[in-house]
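Good morning C.,

I know you're traveling, so I'll keep this short. The sequence:
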Amino acid sequence: MSKSLSLTPVETVACCSPLTKEPLSHEQAERIAPLVKALADPVRLRLLSIVASHADGEACVCDLNDAFDLSQPTISHHLKVLHEVGLLDREKRGVWVYYRVDAGALRDLGALLGGVVG
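The tokens, ready to paste straight into the viewer:
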């Protein structure tokens, strides 16, 4: 199996040229789709925004629950999705989990979409 088939969605985005340079291959699109799909949910998009704009660029899960009218398990599920696709890093400190945006992942996604003109 080639290395390109084992890349994460974030790694795939990082190695792709902007959409306007050349078409994505079927394999690249298959690997990038989970990243874009994760961001397509309004709760996850807000979570990412809240974490990114939080003091010091990280937020405790205890701070995130109050921003939504959702149960803690639902918020945890959305955070897990963002973490699994590589958009959020997490660190457990005592009983709390702290989340930080993976700036490189956002930069890579921006670079992929950055060549799109309206």
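Safe travels,
E.
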